[in-house]
User: Which sequence fits this backbone?
């Protein structure tokens, strides 16, 4: 089983390509094509939040038509439905955070970065939320963000593809 990571897909966010110069106009098709190409039925996809903005049922139907494996969602600031709604619409797990022991590391997956001092037993925090322009990297976040512990996954930096957890960790 391979573990794949993706975040901040923002399906249905029509103005997103205007906000970020890196988002192509057809980013949704590109993301879905890449997911279908890479993920197999024995794999796990962990989505670090902000799946879609509007037309949730349509985007979840389209997403799950191309994802054959298990699907876990770490809810983001735009994922406003109840956990039961997400479970009823195809996710196998829904939560605010996930902790896995993998590759000799205790990894906390979250949408937003976490304050490392509160999690002394965690080795790494893999998160999304900032995209590629770190537009939310403000003074409050700077006060607790610790490079080497908080690790940003930005879909704009991965060619709109899910990333293998193992490959992501090797870049650290």
Assistant:
């Amino acid at each position: 089983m391979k573990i794949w990571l993706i975040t901040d897909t923002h399906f249905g966010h029509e103005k997103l390509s205007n906000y970020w110069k890196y988002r192509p106009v057809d980013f949704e098709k590109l993301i879905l094509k890449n997911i279908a190409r890479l993920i197999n039925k024995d794999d796990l996809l962990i989505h670090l939040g902000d799946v879609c903005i509007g037309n949730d049922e349509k985007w979840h139907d389209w997403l799950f038509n191309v994802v054959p494996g298990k699907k876990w969602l770490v809810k983001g600031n735009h994922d406003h439905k109840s956990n039961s709604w997400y479970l009823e619409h195809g996710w196998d797990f829904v939560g605010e955070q996930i902790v896995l022991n993998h590759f000799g590391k205790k990894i906390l997956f979250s949408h937003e970065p976490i304050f490392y001092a509160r999690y002394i037993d965690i080795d790494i925090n893999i998160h999304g939320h900032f995209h590629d322009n770190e537009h939310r990297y403000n003074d409050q976040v700077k006060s607790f963000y610790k490079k080497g512990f908080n690790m940003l996954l930005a879909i704009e930096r991965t060619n709109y593809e899910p990333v293998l957890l193992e490959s992501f960790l090797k870049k650290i």
